[in-house]
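Request: Mind sharing a record?
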Amino acid sequence: MAPIEEFLLDDEIQQINKIIKDNGAVIINVLTLKKDIKEADRVLFVYSRRFPSCYFMEFAKFNKMLFCSKKEKNSWLDNRDELYDRYVMIDEKLQFNLVDEAQRNSKKNGRKLDE
């Protein structure tokens, strides 16, 4: 599974929180094997103890991105449109092509990317 255990230690997460600006975010690629899929929820849990807003975006069955910020009410449920627009902008600028990949996967699964 990724991230490695060291990135799940409370002291490490606290240090990450300290170096991120108030309007910043931490983005973690969470990869699991089929047998470890519930481990992704553990990553969300440990980061949500130090960051008030955390949510997953799924890119493949066993590949999720965890987005966490210091900003209150900045979760996908509270701020979906703005967060999605920022995500698309960053994806285009950095040429990650995550939007394209997510759209391909969502078509396979029969759902829209922004649902």
Q: What stands out?
A: The chain is about 45% helix and 20% strand.
